[in-house]
Amino acid sequence: MAKSSKIALIKEILESAEASIRSAKQMIAEMSGESANSQIAKMAEKVGTHKMVGDAHIIEGSFDGQNMIGPDGRVYSVPANYASKSKLIPGDVLKLTITDDGTFLYKQIGPVERKKIVGTLTYDEGQYRVIASAKSYKVLLASVTYFKAEIGDKVTIIVPENGDSDWAAIENVLPRFEDGVSPEDFKI
Fold first, then answer.
1. pLDDT at 47 over 60
2. What pLDDT sits at residue 130?
3. How far is Cα 39 from Cα 89, in angstroms, rounded to an integer?
4. Whole-angstrom Cα distance, residue 92 to residue 156?
5. Which of 4, 10, 123, 171 could pair covalently with 156 via S-S, beta carbons 3.0-4.6 A apart?
């Protein structure tokens, strides 16, 4: 077996082992009540604040994939187009300013460590998902429409480097090549 073939095989074995470990951790978290959402809520308690500055409420909390969770566990709706455009992922720290006229202004103030992976866009039970690294990640409809992605497209997603996540942000849609070359051919 050639050296490059052995290296490719070892990489594949390691990726499979990592996927198995992630799945086992997810199963333990679900069985013990430590879901990704409860982890986000705990994080929001630690990093979040709520204060008044003049007539404005300033709330800091953690993004859960769709919403911001405040330090008191309250859920604040984050516009999907903002979350999509900003490529927010679970664990990102957001600051919400609620002005005296009721305007909600969000700003990302603490991004979590990220990694990018390639997967396939699917649609199941009313939810777009990306299957990548032996896991199914939910993605926002706003991201799918913005990138004009179609079911079956290969997409690059962003997920938290550490911890488990049910959600991912779409980074980009990989082009379909007509000459039989696929995006996987460019992996290092």
1. yes
2. 97
3. 14
4. 19
5. 171
Note the pLDDT of residue 25: 61
Q: What is the pLDDT of residue 53?
A: 76
| Closest listed residue to residue 135, CA positions, set 14, 4, 20 | 20
pTM: 0.70
Closest residue by Cα to residue 168 from 77, 45, 58, 64? 64
Higher local confidence (pLDDT), 113 or 164 = 113
At 170 the pLDDT is 98
Gap between the Cα atoms of 13 and 79, Å rounded? 40
pLDDT digits (tens, 9 = 90+) for 178-188: 655 565 655 55
Task: Provide the edge-to-edge strand list for the sheet that holds 114-124.
Answer: 135-138, 127-132, 114-124, 154-160, 169-173
Residue 114, judged by CB atoms within 10 A of its CB (0-12, 13-18, 19+), counts as: middle
174 neighbors 156 (Cβ within 8 angstroms): yes
Q: Give 176's strand partners.
A: none
The answer to whether residues 61 and 92 touch, using CB atoms and an 8 Å cutoff, is no
Q: Would you state the structure tokens that stand for residue 95, as one six-digit string? A: 């600051």
Please state, in angstroms and rounded to a whole number, the distance separating the CA atoms of residues 186 and 114: 21
- At 9 the three-state DSSP class reads helix
